[in-house]
């Protein structure tokens, strides 16, 4: 399909997507099978065309506050799983408040409050709600919460305190693979928490991992699984083997690159937020992801001592994950941060 298209045909393909054309399963298989750089460039070209139609050269910036790295779960892919003997931290409410004070006027569109499923908060979820209140009072910005599978009542309370976005990644909709990744956790429980949040007026983010034993068919299942959720943000992230975890030595042979899937996501979800994460390759990686059709930069750290989701830069002295460096590089690319009002229009809040 796309391999043989000349520029005019690629433009027409992008226009068809904007007009509402839906890719069939076979279309998706064909796109997931692309391998050669020249054909992938054509895919990125169409994805950028669609992204630019809705968002122009404007990009959103998400501030990542990983406030607790404690977790009761044992996801096989995750550095923070409870079996891994690592140094952990939990910021106090006062520390989060101080961090927010320092973030005033920094240029973020949204603050992402993330934690592992930390028993300290799961035993008394009002502590988490209190944190949401503090961040809203200090910054007044949209808040994304990524607390794991929180109970419905806590999600409601957090919404009342001003949380706008609920991020909860299924990682895969291939149930067999899910059992290997999210060890001992309910597939439906995750799905239902996201659905409940959406019904209560949250925007929701779903996400999948690639490079973790997923082939084309498994990826197709996941793409369609995300579609069924009607998400507002869709993420794909490459699995990075983590020291001390069951998948530490895993090596993937598929050609299902994150960039290819980002571009396909843009064609499937033309108006959605699609992250360009700094987690795997920092700001250089952000450029590739934006060029594949992403439009929100995530895992920008407010403080270089905090963790990201994955950390290509763990232990490095210089961590190039601050908002100033991001904006500087966006300018080089001919892109710029969107006005806050534009982000709030996207959120519908
Ligand atoms: S992915 Fe989340 S829930 Fe799973 S172990 Fe890591 S922090 Fe815990």
TrEMBL record:
Record carries keyword S-adenosyl-L-methionine: yes
Record domain Radical SAM core: where: 57-279
Metal-binding as UniProt keyword: yes
Lineage top rank: taxon: Archaea
Listed PROSITE patterns: RADICAL_SAM
Documented EC number(s): 2.8.1.-
Gene Ontology molecular function, alphabetical: 4 iron, 4 sulfur cluster binding; metal ion binding; transferase activity
Matching Gene3D superfamilies: Aldolase class I (3.20.20.70)
InterPro entries recorded: Aldolase_TIM, Elp3/MiaA/NifB-like_rSAM, HydE/PylB-like, Pyrrolys_PylB, rSAM, rSAM_sf
Pfam families referenced in this protein's UniProt entry, alphabetically: Radical_SAM
Binding site for (3R)-3-methyl-D-ornithine: 112, 146, 169, 235, 277, 298-299
Record keywords: 4Fe-4S, Iron, Iron-sulfur, Metal-binding, S-adenosyl-L-methionine, Transferase
Cofactor entry: [4Fe-4S] cluster
Name of this protein: Biotin synthetase
Binding site for S-adenosyl-L-methionine: 77, 171, 182, 190, 240
Binding site for [4Fe-4S] cluster: 71, 75, 78
Cofactor detail note: Binds 1 [4Fe-4S] cluster. The cluster is coordinated with 3 cysteines and an exchangeable S-adenosyl-L-methionine.
Organism: Methanosarcina mazei (strain ATCC BAA-159 / DSM 3647 / Goe1 / Go1 / JCM 11833 / OCM 88)
Single biological process term from Gene Ontology: pyrrolysine biosynthetic process
């Amino acid at each position: 399909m796309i391999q043989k298209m000349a520029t005019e045909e690629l433009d027409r393909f992008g226009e068809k997507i904007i007009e509402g054309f839906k890719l069939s399963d076979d279309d998706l298989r064909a796109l997931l099978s692309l391998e050669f750089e020249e054909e992938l460039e054509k895919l990125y070209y169409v994805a950028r065309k669609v992204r630019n139609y809705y968002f122009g050269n404007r990009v959103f910036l998400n501030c990542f506050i990983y406030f607790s790295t404690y977790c009761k779960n044992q996801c096989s892919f995750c550095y923070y799983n409870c079996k891994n003997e690592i140094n952990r931290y939990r910021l106090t409410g006062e520390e989060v408040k101080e961090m927010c004070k320092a973030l005033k006027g920094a240029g973020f569109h949204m603050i992402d409050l993330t934690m592992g499923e930390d028993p300290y908060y799961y035993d008394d979820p009002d502590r988490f709600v209190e944190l949401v209140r503090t961040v809203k009072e200090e910054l007044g910005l949209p808040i994304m919460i990524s607390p794991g599978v929180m109970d419905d009542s806590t999600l409601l309370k957090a919404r009342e305190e001003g949380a706008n976005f609920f991020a909860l990644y299924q990682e895969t909709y291939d149930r067999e693979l899910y059992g290997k990744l999210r060890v001992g956790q309910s597939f439906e429980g995750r799905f239902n928490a996201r659905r409940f949040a959406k019904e209560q007026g949250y925007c929701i983010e779903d996400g999948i991992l690639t490079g973790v034993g997923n082939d084309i068919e498994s990826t197709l299942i996941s793409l369609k699984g995300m579609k069924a959720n009607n998400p507002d943000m869709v993420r794909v992230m490459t699995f990075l083997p983590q020291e001390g975890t069951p998948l530490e030595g895993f090596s993937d042979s598929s050609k299902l690159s994150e960039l290819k899937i980002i571009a396909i996501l843009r064609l499937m979800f033309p108006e959605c937020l699609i992250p360009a994460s700094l987690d795997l390759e920092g700001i250089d990686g952000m450029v590739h992801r934006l060029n594949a059709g992403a439009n929100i930069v995530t895992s920008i750290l407010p403080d270089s001592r905090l963790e990201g989701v994955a950390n290509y830069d763990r232990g490095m002295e210089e961590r190039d994950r601050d908002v100033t460096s991001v904006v500087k590089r966006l300018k080089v690319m001919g892109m710029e941060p969107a006005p806050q009002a534009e982000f709030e229009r996207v959120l519908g809040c």
